[in-house]
From TrEMBL:
Lineage, uppermost ranks: Bacteria, Bacillati, Actinomycetota, Actinomycetes, Mycobacteriales
Family: Belongs to the Fmt family.
Uppermost EC category: transferase
Cited function: Attaches a formyl group to the free amino group of methionyl-tRNA(fMet). The formyl group appears to play a dual role in the initiator identity of N-formylmethionyl-tRNA by promoting its recognition by IF2 and preventing the misappropriation of this tRNA by the elongation apparatus.
The protein, known as: Methionyl-tRNA formyltransferase
Length: 119
């Protein structure tokens, strides 16, 4: 049986700009937003002036310290980014022109300045 055209609505395509992560939002909204745009167009952020795609994140109740929105903390095994509520733990990251990799591996190689932020 054909569906009636009454009440039909169309969802617009998600643009690349809409896939940019807004770190001032609550952690759960960021986690859901990233899942919504993965794999295409792919969630992204600027870390310093480098545009990177980011993969799954999880709300981190075990972060070592509170972080301001966009603040970054790394250790040998994890990368945390501050949000409008709790920090999130970053799972994967894809630098421009490279394959996706573990975020902590990337951070060790990138030797991030302590003042660098995600925006």
């Amino acid at each position: 049986m054909p569906q009636s055209a009454d009440g039909v609505s169309y969802a617009p395509k998600v643009t690349v700009e809409q896939a940019r992560v807004r770190w001032d939002q609550p952690a759960q909204a960021i986690e859901r937003g990233i899942r919504a745009v993965t794999p295409n167009p792919g969630a992204w952020t600027l870390i310093g002036d480098l545009r990177v795609k980011i993969g799954p994140v999880s709300v981190a109740v075990d972060a070592p310290k509170p972080l301001p929105p966009g603040g970054i903390h790394t250790d040998r095994r994890h990368v945390w980014i501050g949000t409008g509520s709790d920090p999130v733990r970053l799972g994967q990251l894809q630098p421009p022109g490279k394959k996706a990799m573990n975020a902590a591996d990337w951070a060790r190689g990138a030797r991030l300045d302590p003042a660098v932020r995600a925006s």
